[in-house]
Design goal:
The chain is built from 11 helices and 10 strands. By secondary structure, it is of the alpha/beta class. It has 2 domains: about 200 residues, 2-enoyl-CoA Hydratase, Chain A, domain 1 (Alpha-Beta Complex); about 45 residues. The strands form 2 sheets. The chain has a 6-stranded mixed sheet with strand order 1-2-3-5-7-10, with helices on both faces. The longest helix has 25 residues. This is Enoyl-CoA hydratase-related protein. Belongs to the enoyl-CoA hydratase/isomerase family. It comes from Microbacterium aoyamense. Pfam families: ECH_1.
Length: about 260
């Protein structure tokens, strides 16, 4: 079994770890297939309630491994095929009902931006840097960058990253909405685990459905989104988890009302 991406599942938490540090975790053909397969395995596993996406080494992900692809004798059609494979994994994670938090410990470049944005919540080191660099080597965006990047930071800023040789720091990434939180380098892993633990200790299935509605709603009509919302909330309403939480919420509200009434009497 390949170790280009590591997968562990324990107590409802799946951890997906990019593991090609010598190549800055850039995806070659084999790693792309591994990514797709893991995405299908994790999202179809009913025992998984949350996902952590992280990486080892100095970079989170440098996108596609164009050096490996360029030296392999691959043609454009091979690169197109590899992109489709990686895109399958991205789409599978994004459209799933598994909430995903990314731990970004280092630089993110090119298609790594799209892989990072597969996550719904992104915790970044304050030392991380973010850059496009596609056009610098004569290539165009892939790995979801042309869709996920403008969805996160807006079209104008996405174009600024894609059309200029611009590197932004973590503070700017936070200001633009590219990442969710910025913490000290030694706090990234703990904060990421804390986010995942919050989901798992609460109604992670409801968080997952909320994520799915937001992520899939972009490409559909308003009417279709409303129909999906109606079906989803009805399905959740019938679960034991929701019934228990609603009852507890009602009891707390009644207790607060009684306390306020007593205070005013």
């Amino acid at each position: 079994m390949t170790d280009s991406i590591l997968l562990s599942i324990e107590s409802g938490l799946a951890r997906v770890t990019f593991h090609r540090p010598a190549s800055l975790n850039a995806m070659d053909f084999e790693m792309g297939a591994r990514w797709r397969d893991i995405a299908h395995d994790v999202t179809s596993d009913d025992s998984v309630g949350a996902v952590i996406l992280d990486a080892v080494g100095p970079a989170f992900c440098a996108g596609g491994d164009v050096i490996a692809m360029g030296s392999s004798g691959a043609a454009g059609m091979d690169v197109t095929g590899a992109a489709h494979v990686i895109h399958d994994g991205i789409r599978t994670f994004v459209e799933s009902d598994k909430p995903i938090v990314a731990a970004v410990q280092g630089a993110v470049a090119g298609g790594g931006l799209g892989l990072m944005l597969t996550a719904d919540y992104i915790v970044s080191s304050d030392a991380a840097k973010f850059v496009s660099r596609y056009a610098n080597i004569g290539l165009t965006p892939d790995l979801g960058v042309s869709t996920l990047l403008p969805a996160a930071i807006g079209q104008r800023r996405a174009l600024q990253l894609l059309l200029q040789d611009t590197t932004i720091d973590a503070a700017t990434a936070l200001d633009w909405g590219l990442v969710t939180e910025v913490v000290a380098p030694d706090a990234v892993a703990d904060r990421t685990a804390e986010v995942a633990r919050f989901w798992l200790e609460n109604s992670t299935a409801a968080f997952g459905q909320a994520k799915r509605l937001v992520r899939t709603g972009v490409g559909r009509s308003f009417a279709d989104n409303l129909d999906d919302e109606a079906r989803s909330i009805g399905a959740r309403f019938d679960t034991t988890d929701a019934k228990t939480r609603i009852m507890a919420f009602a009891m707390r509200a009644a207790e607060r009302a009684a306390a306020k009434k007593k205070e005013n009497s």
